[in-house]
Amino acid sequence: MSRIGVFVCHCGLNIAKTVRVSELAEFAATLPDVVVAKDYKFMCSTPGQEMIQHDIKQYNLDRVIVTACSPLMHEKTFRKVIENAGLNQYLLTIVNIREQVSWVTTDIEEGTAKSKALLNGAVYRARLLAPLTSRVIDVNPDVMVIGAGIAGIQAALELANTGKKVYLVEKNSTIGGHMAQFDKTFPTLDCSACILTPKMDNVLQHKNITMLTYCEVSGVKGYVGNFDITIKQKARYVDHSKCNACLACTEKCPGKGVSEWDEALVKRKSIYIPFPQAVPQKPIIDRESCTFFKKGKCRLCEKVCEQKAIDFEQQDTFIDVKVGAIIVATGFDLMDTKPLVQYGYGKYPGVYNSLEVERLFNSAGPTSGKVTMRDGKEPQSIAILHCIGSRDKNHHEHCSRVCCMYSLKFAHLFKEKTSADVYQLYIDMRAAGKGYEEFYNRLSEENVKFIRGKGARVTESTEEPGRLIVEAEDTITSKFMKIPVDMVVLSPAIVPRAESKDIGRLLNLSTDKQGFFMERHPKLAPLSTMSEGIFIAGVCQGPKDIPDTVAQALGAAAEALTIVVNDKMELEATTAMVNPASCCGCQNCVRVCPYGAPGFNYEKRVSEINEALCKGCGLCASVCPSSAIIARHFTNEQVLAEMEGLMEF
Amino acid sequence: MTDFKKIEENLKTEAGRLLKEGLVTVVLSYGKGFDENHPMPYAAKTIADVENIVFNQYCNYNMARYLVRYPQGTKIAIAVKAADSRAVIQLIQEEKVKRENLVILGIPVQGMKNPKTGEVIDSKTTCGLYNPVLYDILLGEEVHGQKNALPYEVLAEYEAMDKDARWEFWEKELNKCIRCYACRKACPMCYCDPCFIDQSKPKWADKAPQSPGNMMYHLTRFHHLAGRCIDCGECSRACPVDIPLYLFHKKVAKECEEMFNQKAGMSIEDKPVLVDFRVEDSDKILE
Question: B204 to chain A: nearest residue by CA?
């Protein structure tokens, strides 16, 4: 016989509006084994908590059911409550009648009926609950940061400054990310490199940061506090421990590759550093374009290298590291605008995307900061087209957030560097940010022509070859316009990095419709993920500007620190175990476990679960055909009993 | 047509040789039953046993059923027909047996008969292949010019039914079940010990031969065999009350094949499809 207490929360009107809470409590009181049932306005408030604790003692309760919001919200709160009253924390059941009932119906009859069914199931299940003991594990104090753009750099520096060791993994040969490609930053127009490169240098100098450039995360095992990471160091063909960065090799190299850094606007050498302030300032060889790798002859770089650092035999190597927490800051790509044929990107040389234009402005860029087009001429008229592929149901529904502001920045820089007429074709001008509206006002006075209407099409002029015609509707005057220009700048949708899919898979991160990583809670846990110990920062979570990215990076660093600051941590007791007598040896559990917890004992021909690795997701139990796997706290008996209770309705 | 006498001779010769040379400790094939129409599964362990081996058009049993009964590491020779070889492959995929411990005696055969009805067994109830997919020694002439197997053709009528009609159909069919578990016994892929249905904690379903326990038993078994059933049809032939179990298995196999582009037991390189995640997997299953 159990002694169950049921506590029904109104959550103000959140629940009470569509569930008759007092009727629910009265109903609960009629159920077998329920000793006391009460409803209260805010069960999570101090008086609510005290009421539960009081009743546990007064009625000598041994099970507590709280019907309230999602367990994601307050399960921890109520576990503490009953633990402080002397009950094992796993003797609590939360029935979610808010997210799963009151918020998804407007019908109070329906809401009350479903709440009763769920509660009845919970009572059935509660009887079978068993006290469990949480596990205490050692925590590795180090942190890994994936992606060394401004978000990754900031997070790594912050953690390193607290004395924690950080592995900063970057897939490119230099850190810096997209921010290092920019010339100026809005709205203050301060030089991007001037504020970023000191941070890059700090990373290089910091004794607590291990910088792993030209590396990719290739394997992740383990769990919060104890991740085992395998990192692939891609072959650079230059031994960086010997290289003294004299760069004689890059001068002599006859090979020509496409400069990724300059958005393919120019060629670079085959042995190269991407840009002058790159960190580390040591070259790599691009195998694709290298004359030696292509033709088997050359090795000029090897001849001029006094340090004997060139190594054509170098292979990819693998580095194993252990960390306690992970920050993912993999950043973004621009949407490929070639498929949007109406804008002629890739077809007309006068059409540019925004990152290419960033490089045109940059003094270290392909034109040394002069605004000249692919034909070498300075444009006399320029149209900047907002929202290409974003805010567009056919492509990406989301707003890319930064395009309005950087388009204004472009307009300003065009005005500063050329005598061209500049047109802005926008749907809405979104300038919500500190100093942003002011920046917009400033631009309004700089003789930039604002046209409220989305650019519809770019065609080549039939009268003046080389000139482009931008077609749009000015929605203010309802006039259809054809604007002849020399240069068109597209502001494409910001999308997650192509590789972020693989990272997401390795780390079990879920993504939203657009592929951005999902946060645990959009408001209250915006940097956490559903995988404990893994945090996200920057644009990989959704489009945002530099200030927001930096703020997130600092937040993610703090979140990671809350884990690695302790040497021990408590883990959920809800792990799985195998009953060897029932195990049929099919190894389904071994194959489906995302954490590698079950292993097969070939001698005994049964599976065994390493509880240190088990996260209690229950996949193994659900694929076990002979029900040999017991998922603690969600045993087959408990789940079946709950279903039986539900089915009674 | 298949020369059954010749295959029987070859089977005896190879079995004798393998046992004599000590390459295997047991040869799984067929032996005499109470009459010619009812041969029995037979495990030859000595050279003297080899004389008892028979092979005729009623030797339907899928001998792969018996592989899991031997301790790991036992060297086994097994006589397999087309679908049987797929069962062996599937068991290798699931690591229940090791390829190196097996000598697979392949039997290409056409014109097997169901002893109950005397009818020729075709792709209606089996996978429709004539030649074994995997073997070490072939005991007869490969069947040439076999027409493209159409194992799912028989589903047309079933698929024409709507959801309610299908439910009604299975309710009617499965209510015939007397819970003798012959289907489970005959199935090479049903190797759980204990089977979920025999468990008492939790008790998954009523053990009396009635609905809904019958439904629970069969639907769960169908589910456990999804992506694993190699379509030998033994369950249906073993069934004393003639439940067309093959229909459900074929339907699931077809869906699996369409969704994941993999057929059970066709290659030892494959991984069991339902517990193997591939990036290119269809998301259709989630819709």
Answer: A640
